[in-house]
Amino acid sequence: LVSREKKPTDTVVNVGDVSVGNGQSQFVMGPCSVESQAQVDTVAKSVKEQGVNILRGGAFKPRTSPYDFQGLGEEGLKILRNSGDRYGLKVVSEITNPKDIEVGSQYLDIIQIGARNMQNFDLLKEAGKVNKPILLKRGLAATINEFMNAAEYIVSQGNSDLILCERGIRTYETATRNTLDITAVPVLKQETHLPVMVDVTHSTGRRDLLLPAAKAALAVGADGVMAEVHPDPAVALSDSQQQMDIPTFEYFMEQLKQPNVTAHNI
Ligand code: PEP
Ligand code: MN
Protein backbone atom coordinates (compact mmCIF):
# COMPACT_ATOMS: atom_id res chain seq x y z
CA LEU A 1 0.00 0.00 0.00
CA VAL A 2 2.87 2.41 0.61
CA SER A 3 4.55 1.77 -2.73
CA ARG A 4 4.61 4.28 -5.54
CA GLU A 5 3.50 1.51 -7.89
CA LYS A 6 0.19 1.22 -6.01
CA LYS A 7 -0.35 4.98 -5.89
CA PRO A 8 1.66 7.14 -8.29
CA THR A 9 0.60 10.49 -6.78
CA ASP A 10 2.26 12.01 -3.72
CA THR A 11 0.35 11.60 -0.46
CA VAL A 12 -0.23 14.91 1.31
CA VAL A 13 -0.75 14.51 5.05
CA ASN A 14 -3.07 17.20 6.33
CA VAL A 15 -2.60 18.11 9.97
CA GLY A 16 -5.53 20.47 10.36
CA ASP A 17 -4.61 23.40 8.13
CA VAL A 18 -0.93 22.38 7.90
CA SER A 19 0.03 20.15 4.98
CA VAL A 20 3.05 17.88 4.84
CA GLY A 21 4.15 16.66 1.43
CA ASN A 22 2.58 19.30 -0.78
CA GLY A 23 5.90 20.68 -2.05
CA GLN A 24 6.37 23.20 0.75
CA SER A 25 8.97 22.50 3.41
CA GLN A 26 7.59 21.94 6.89
CA PHE A 27 9.69 22.20 10.02
CA VAL A 28 9.23 20.30 13.26
CA MET A 29 11.05 22.13 16.02
CA GLY A 30 11.09 21.97 19.80
CA PRO A 31 12.91 20.54 22.76
CA CYS A 32 14.13 16.97 23.05
CA SER A 33 12.11 16.54 26.25
CA VAL A 34 9.21 18.47 27.70
CA GLU A 35 10.62 19.69 31.03
CA SER A 36 8.20 22.42 32.14
CA GLN A 37 5.45 24.68 30.80
CA ALA A 38 7.78 27.68 30.88
CA GLN A 39 10.49 25.81 28.95
CA VAL A 40 8.13 24.69 26.18
CA ASP A 41 6.41 28.09 26.01
CA THR A 42 9.74 29.85 25.50
CA VAL A 43 10.58 27.57 22.60
CA ALA A 44 7.04 27.68 21.17
CA LYS A 45 7.08 31.47 21.05
CA SER A 46 10.29 31.49 19.03
CA VAL A 47 9.15 28.60 16.83
CA LYS A 48 5.99 30.54 15.97
CA GLU A 49 7.94 33.73 15.27
CA GLN A 50 10.07 31.82 12.78
CA GLY A 51 7.00 30.71 10.83
CA VAL A 52 7.33 27.08 11.87
CA ASN A 53 4.00 25.22 12.13
CA ILE A 54 4.81 22.11 14.14
CA LEU A 55 6.14 21.96 17.71
CA ARG A 56 7.81 18.84 19.09
CA GLY A 57 8.67 17.72 22.62
CA GLY A 58 9.23 14.29 24.15
CA ALA A 59 7.04 13.15 27.05
CA PHE A 60 7.75 9.41 26.96
CA LYS A 61 11.50 9.27 26.43
CA PRO A 62 13.16 6.05 25.24
CA ARG A 63 16.51 6.53 26.98
CA THR A 64 19.51 4.26 26.59
CA SER A 65 20.13 4.23 30.34
CA PRO A 66 17.33 3.53 32.84
CA TYR A 67 18.92 6.11 35.14
CA ASP A 68 18.46 8.96 32.65
CA PHE A 69 15.42 11.28 32.64
CA GLN A 70 12.48 9.23 31.38
CA GLY A 71 10.12 12.12 30.54
CA LEU A 72 7.03 13.57 32.21
CA GLY A 73 4.60 11.15 30.60
CA GLU A 74 0.99 12.31 30.23
CA GLU A 75 1.79 15.52 32.13
CA GLY A 76 4.31 16.28 29.37
CA LEU A 77 1.67 15.77 26.69
CA LYS A 78 -0.61 18.26 28.50
CA ILE A 79 2.16 20.84 28.68
CA LEU A 80 2.93 20.43 24.99
CA ARG A 81 -0.78 20.73 24.09
CA ASN A 82 -1.08 23.93 26.17
CA SER A 83 1.87 25.51 24.38
CA GLY A 84 0.52 24.44 21.01
CA ASP A 85 -2.85 26.01 21.76
CA ARG A 86 -1.30 29.16 23.19
CA TYR A 87 0.91 29.78 20.15
CA GLY A 88 -1.21 28.25 17.39
CA LEU A 89 1.11 25.34 16.65
CA LYS A 90 0.48 21.69 15.79
CA VAL A 91 2.13 19.35 18.26
CA VAL A 92 3.95 16.03 17.87
CA SER A 93 5.33 13.71 20.54
CA GLU A 94 6.51 10.14 20.75
CA ILE A 95 4.33 7.35 22.10
CA THR A 96 6.20 4.22 23.12
CA ASN A 97 3.50 1.93 24.48
CA PRO A 98 0.57 0.60 22.40
CA LYS A 99 -1.82 1.34 25.27
CA ASP A 100 -0.83 5.03 25.22
CA ILE A 101 -1.80 5.55 21.57
CA GLU A 102 -5.33 6.49 22.71
CA VAL A 103 -4.13 9.05 25.24
CA GLY A 104 -1.63 10.36 22.72
CA SER A 105 -4.36 10.95 20.20
CA GLN A 106 -6.29 13.03 22.76
CA TYR A 107 -3.46 15.53 23.17
CA LEU A 108 -1.46 15.38 19.95
CA ASP A 109 -1.88 16.42 16.33
CA ILE A 110 0.74 13.90 15.19
CA ILE A 111 1.87 10.76 17.00
CA GLN A 112 5.56 9.95 16.66
CA ILE A 113 6.89 6.41 16.66
CA GLY A 114 10.57 6.49 17.49
CA ALA A 115 13.52 4.71 15.97
CA ARG A 116 13.74 2.19 18.80
CA ASN A 117 10.14 1.18 18.21
CA MET A 118 10.11 1.01 14.43
CA GLN A 119 9.57 -2.73 14.62
CA ASN A 120 7.29 -2.73 17.66
CA PHE A 121 4.56 -4.33 15.63
CA ASP A 122 1.85 -4.03 18.30
CA LEU A 123 2.55 -0.30 18.50
CA LEU A 124 2.47 0.00 14.69
CA LYS A 125 -0.87 -1.81 14.54
CA GLU A 126 -2.41 0.48 17.19
CA ALA A 127 -1.07 3.52 15.33
CA GLY A 128 -2.74 2.18 12.23
CA LYS A 129 -6.13 2.15 13.92
CA VAL A 130 -6.33 5.77 15.05
CA ASN A 131 -7.56 8.71 13.06
CA LYS A 132 -4.40 10.73 13.60
CA PRO A 133 -1.32 11.42 11.47
CA ILE A 134 1.71 9.32 12.39
CA LEU A 135 5.37 10.27 12.06
CA LEU A 136 7.40 7.07 11.79
CA LYS A 137 11.15 7.17 12.33
CA ARG A 138 13.57 4.79 10.68
CA GLY A 139 15.06 2.24 13.07
CA LEU A 140 18.68 2.57 14.18
CA ALA A 141 19.75 -0.39 12.08
CA ALA A 142 16.83 -0.76 9.71
CA THR A 143 17.17 -1.15 5.97
CA ILE A 144 14.93 0.95 3.77
CA ASN A 145 12.97 -2.17 2.97
CA GLU A 146 12.37 -2.87 6.68
CA PHE A 147 11.37 0.78 7.13
CA MET A 148 8.85 0.49 4.31
CA ASN A 149 7.46 -2.71 5.83
CA ALA A 150 7.01 -0.93 9.16
CA ALA A 151 5.10 1.79 7.30
CA GLU A 152 3.01 -0.93 5.65
CA TYR A 153 1.99 -2.20 9.11
CA ILE A 154 0.41 1.18 9.87
CA VAL A 155 -1.22 1.83 6.51
CA SER A 156 -2.60 -1.71 6.26
CA GLN A 157 -4.61 -1.07 9.44
CA GLY A 158 -6.37 1.81 7.71
CA ASN A 159 -4.33 4.87 8.64
CA SER A 160 -2.73 6.35 5.53
CA ASP A 161 -1.77 9.68 7.15
CA LEU A 162 1.83 8.68 7.51
CA ILE A 163 5.05 10.71 7.39
CA LEU A 164 8.40 8.91 7.18
CA CYS A 165 11.47 10.29 8.94
CA GLU A 166 15.11 9.44 8.24
CA ARG A 167 17.04 9.98 11.50
CA GLY A 168 20.42 8.40 10.83
CA ILE A 169 21.53 4.80 11.03
CA ARG A 170 24.27 3.06 12.96
CA THR A 171 27.52 2.53 11.05
CA TYR A 172 31.19 2.20 12.00
CA GLU A 173 31.57 5.99 11.74
CA THR A 174 32.02 7.77 15.08
CA ALA A 175 32.43 11.39 13.95
CA THR A 176 28.65 11.77 14.08
CA ARG A 177 26.19 10.15 16.51
CA ASN A 178 24.57 8.27 13.65
CA THR A 179 25.18 8.34 9.92
CA LEU A 180 22.60 10.41 8.08
CA ASP A 181 21.57 8.31 5.10
CA ILE A 182 20.82 11.24 2.84
CA THR A 183 20.04 9.11 -0.20
CA ALA A 184 17.28 7.41 1.80
CA VAL A 185 15.24 10.53 1.02
CA PRO A 186 15.16 10.20 -2.78
CA VAL A 187 14.95 6.40 -2.49
CA LEU A 188 11.88 6.66 -0.23
CA LYS A 189 10.37 9.34 -2.47
CA GLN A 190 10.82 7.04 -5.47
CA GLU A 191 9.68 3.84 -3.80
CA THR A 192 6.77 5.26 -1.79
CA HIS A 193 4.19 8.02 -2.16
CA LEU A 194 4.59 9.17 1.46
CA PRO A 195 6.09 12.46 2.68
CA VAL A 196 9.66 12.14 3.96
CA MET A 197 11.30 14.26 6.64
CA VAL A 198 14.85 14.32 7.99
CA ASP A 199 15.73 14.63 11.68
CA VAL A 200 19.06 16.44 11.70
CA THR A 201 19.48 16.42 15.48
CA HIS A 202 19.52 12.69 16.17
CA SER A 203 21.26 11.80 12.92
CA THR A 204 24.24 14.09 13.42
CA GLY A 205 24.30 14.52 17.20
CA ARG A 206 26.31 17.67 16.50
CA ARG A 207 25.08 21.23 16.69
CA ASP A 208 27.62 22.41 14.08
CA LEU A 209 26.22 19.97 11.52
CA LEU A 210 22.52 20.78 11.87
CA LEU A 211 22.46 23.49 9.22
CA PRO A 212 24.48 21.70 6.51
CA ALA A 213 22.48 18.50 7.12
CA ALA A 214 19.19 20.40 6.87
CA LYS A 215 20.27 22.10 3.64
CA ALA A 216 21.26 18.73 2.21
CA ALA A 217 17.90 17.23 3.23
CA LEU A 218 15.92 19.94 1.49
CA ALA A 219 18.20 19.82 -1.55
CA VAL A 220 17.53 16.11 -2.07
CA GLY A 221 13.77 16.58 -1.81
CA ALA A 222 12.81 16.12 1.84
CA ASP A 223 9.36 17.45 2.68
CA GLY A 224 10.52 18.74 6.02
CA VAL A 225 13.20 18.91 8.67
CA MET A 226 13.09 18.11 12.38
CA ALA A 227 15.55 19.61 14.87
CA GLU A 228 15.72 20.22 18.61
CA VAL A 229 15.62 23.62 20.29
CA HIS A 230 15.99 24.34 24.02
CA PRO A 231 16.06 27.65 25.91
CA ASP A 232 19.29 26.59 27.66
CA PRO A 233 20.75 23.41 26.13
CA ALA A 234 23.52 23.20 28.74
CA VAL A 235 20.97 22.33 31.43
CA ALA A 236 18.68 20.22 29.23
CA LEU A 237 17.58 16.93 30.79
CA SER A 238 18.36 15.08 27.53
CA ASP A 239 20.45 15.66 24.39
CA SER A 240 22.21 18.74 25.78
CA GLN A 241 25.05 18.34 23.25
CA GLN A 242 23.01 18.91 20.12
CA GLN A 243 19.99 21.06 20.90
CA MET A 244 20.09 24.62 19.56
CA ASP A 245 19.59 27.61 21.80
CA ILE A 246 17.11 30.22 20.61
CA PRO A 247 19.53 32.58 18.80
CA THR A 248 21.15 29.61 17.02
CA PHE A 249 17.71 28.37 16.03
CA GLU A 250 16.76 31.80 14.65
CA TYR A 251 19.92 31.84 12.54
CA PHE A 252 19.23 28.24 11.42
CA MET A 253 15.73 29.15 10.22
CA GLU A 254 16.88 32.35 8.50
CA GLN A 255 19.45 30.35 6.56
CA LEU A 256 16.95 27.68 5.57
CA LYS A 257 14.47 30.27 4.36
CA GLN A 258 16.94 31.52 1.73
CA PRO A 259 15.31 30.83 -1.65
CA ASN A 260 18.21 28.81 -3.06
CA VAL A 261 17.97 26.28 -0.22
CA THR A 262 14.57 25.00 -1.25
CA ALA A 263 15.28 25.13 -4.98
CA HIS A 264 13.67 21.71 -5.49
CA ASN A 265 10.32 23.26 -4.65
CA ILE A 266 10.45 25.82 -7.44
C1 PEP B 1 13.13 11.92 19.38
O1 PEP B 1 12.82 12.43 18.29
O2 PEP B 1 12.82 12.44 20.46
C2 PEP B 1 13.88 10.65 19.41
C3 PEP B 1 14.09 9.97 20.54
O3 PEP B 1 14.35 10.28 18.20
P1 PEP B 1 14.77 8.83 17.66
O4 PEP B 1 13.62 7.92 17.95
O5 PEP B 1 14.99 9.08 16.21
O6 PEP B 1 16.02 8.45 18.38
MN1 MN C 1 16.58 14.20 21.50
From TrEMBL:
GO molecular function, one term: transferase activity
Keywords of the record: Transferase
Gene Ontology BP term (one): aromatic amino acid family biosynthetic process
Domain of life: Bacteria
Name of the protein described by the UniProt record: Protein AroA(G)
Organism of origin: Alkalibacillus haloalkaliphilus
